[in-house]
């Protein structure tokens, strides 16, 4: 038997919702056959099997939240050997196991007879489903080793808790729950997120930590709806930060931590651009590209002049950094969906005209809102454009989409008084904002790029003639 865990989904994603099983128990499958459809924080994807054989167990029901490295499917590969949970997914774990010391593992007692040695955070591996687990000395928590199932429970008071992931442990800490007091509902008593939330909702005082000082300056932690909060307010709801919301929070927090960000902005007269679009709508059978498509086209021309803003910073293990430049631009467009903010990417966008960008933007943004984009189209961006003007905002300070080094934001277009040739008149004005990573360039480059894009928007016909 071989158990295949949910593989790394990329881009920092740690969980997925099971949408459907594409195979059933007892069915014979082949290598790379899709076995399940899952929805990550970014898109719906099919998971292929790295093994051929007969499906013995499907770990999870439709609608369940699955955690990366948690068992997904058990397959009878016909080799007559039982492979423990997590040990079978070797094609997906080469990076995780890189640098391990086999000699040290042997010294600690990990042998082929006892288990895979591929110990996962939160739970260990064993040689059989019937074996018990205990903590190994050394790290306080350690990995799991086998011992006979017949040994009395009292003889193994330090038996390892079966917890689906570090996220479940963290959630338990946040709710003040002791994992040892929880009963797992997962396979073989595995403690999953639902178990922690159920215990938190029950609000059992026995599971809460020792009470702290009850003074207002150090209120005791509370859990559950209706619990008193500082200032006398009542908590009416707790919503776990999960899925796309957590993915967005993680990426934006990482951006703020790692990038020394600076911001420049400029008001732009786009009256001529609006007139050009109106003329194209009236005279062209193909209609007119959107404002966002024109902005994208001018941004790409600007990046050709100021390529520093479409690079990335690579940091090696010693802390040394390199600025990496690419052959082309993968242009991302921030899109608001029902599940949160995503940034679908147009690859090699520099090859497209304004009309081509218009078509691609419509396609990727539409699919992003439908949740049908592939993971490939949500990764690999080198520059992002964010049109927050559609939400009624005049301006903002956009956060760089890590690991990119710059993002251009655009506010709404408003009629404002504007001086033209010494005369005050009413023009259509928008505000462009550029946030950039000060490690890759200085204000001169950022300001030059922003002014170039602004000039193109002010005089679009002349700018397009040179593109």
UniProtKB/TrEMBL annotation:
EC number(s) given by UniProt: 2.3.1.-
Family named by the database record: Belongs to the 2-oxoacid dehydrogenase family.
Domain (Peripheral subunit-binding (PSBD)) ranges: 163-200
PANTHER family: DIHYDROLIPOAMIDE ACETYLTRANSFERASE COMPONENT OF PYRUVATE DEHYDROGENASE COMPLEX, LIPOAMIDE ACYLTRANSFERASE COMPONENT OF BRANCHED-CHAIN ALPHA-KETO ACID DEHYDROGENASE COMPLEX, MITOCHONDRIAL
Keyword Transferase: yes
Top EC group: transferase
Compositionally biased residues, Low complexity: 75-89, 142-158, 203-232
Name the record gives this protein: Dihydrolipoamide acetyltransferase component of pyruvate dehydrogenase complex
Keywords: Acyltransferase, Lipoyl, Transferase
Region of interest (Disordered), ranges: 75-159, 203-240
MF terms in GO: acyltransferase activity
Organism of origin: Nesterenkonia aerolata
Residue span(s) of domain Lipoyl-binding: 1-76
Cofactor: (R)-lipoate
Gene3D superfamilies (UniProt xref): 2.40.50.100, Chloramphenicol acetyltransferase-like domain (3.30.559.10), E3-binding domain (4.10.320.10)
Domain of life of the organism encoding this protein: Bacteria
């Amino acid at each position: 038997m071989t158990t295949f865990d949910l593989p790394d989904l990329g881009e920092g994603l740690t969980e997925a919702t099971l949408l459907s099983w594409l195979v059933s128990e007892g069915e014979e499958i082949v290598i790379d056959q899709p076995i399940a459809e899952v929805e990550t924080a970014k898109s719906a994807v099919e998971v292929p099997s790295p093994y051929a054989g007969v499906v013995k167990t499907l770990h999870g029901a439709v609608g369940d939240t699955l955690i990366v490295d948690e068992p997904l499917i058990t397959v009878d590969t016909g080799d007559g050997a039982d492979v423990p949970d997590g040990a079978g997914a070797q094609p997906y774990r080469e990076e995780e196991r890189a640098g391990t010391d086999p000699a040290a593992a042997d010294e600690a007692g990990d042998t082929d007879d006892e288990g895979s040695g591929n110990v996962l955070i939160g739970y260990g591996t064993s040689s059989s489903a019937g074996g018990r687990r205990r903590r190994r000395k050394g790290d306080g928590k350690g990995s799991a080793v086998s011992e006979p199932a017949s040994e009395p429970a009292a003889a193994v008071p330090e038996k390892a808790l079966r917890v689906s992931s570090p996220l479940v442990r963290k959630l338990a800490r946040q709710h003040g729950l002791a994992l040892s007091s929880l009963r797992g509902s997962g396979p073989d008593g595995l403690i999953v997120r639902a178990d922690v939330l159920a215990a938190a909702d029950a609000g059992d005082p026995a599971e809460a930590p020792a009470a702290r000082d009850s003074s207002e300056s150090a209120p005791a932690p509370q859990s559950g709806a209706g619990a008193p909060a500082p200032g006398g307010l009542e908590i009416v709801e707790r919503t776990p930060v999960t899925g796309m919301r957590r993915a967005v929070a993680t990426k934006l927090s990482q951006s703020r931590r790692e990038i020394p960000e600076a911001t420049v902005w400029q008001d732009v007269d786009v009256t001529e651009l609006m007139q050009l679009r109106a003329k194209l709508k009236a005279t062209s059978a193909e209609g007119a590209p959107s404002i966002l498509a024109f902005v994208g086209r001018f941004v790409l021309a600007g990046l050709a002049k100021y390529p520093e803003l479409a690079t990335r910073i690579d940091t090696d293990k010693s802390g040394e950094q390199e600025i990496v430049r690419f052959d082309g631009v993968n242009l991302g467009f921030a899109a608001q969906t029902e599940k949160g903010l995503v940034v679908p990417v147009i690859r090699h966008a520099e090859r497209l005209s304004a009309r081509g960008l218009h078509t691609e933007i419509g396609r990727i943004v539409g699919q992003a809102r439908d949740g049908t984009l592939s993971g490939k189209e949500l990764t690999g961006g080198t520059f992002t454009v964010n049109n927050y003007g559609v939400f009624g905002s005049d301006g903002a300070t956009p956060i760089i989409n890590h690991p990119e080094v710059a993002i251009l934001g655009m506010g709404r277009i408003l009629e404002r008084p504007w001086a033209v040739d010494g005369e005050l008149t009413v023009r259509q004005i928008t505000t462009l904002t550029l946030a950039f990573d000060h490690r890759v360039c200085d204000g001169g480059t950022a300001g030059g790029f922003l002014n170039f894009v602004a000039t193109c928007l002010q005089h679009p016909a002349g700018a397009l003639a040179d593109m």
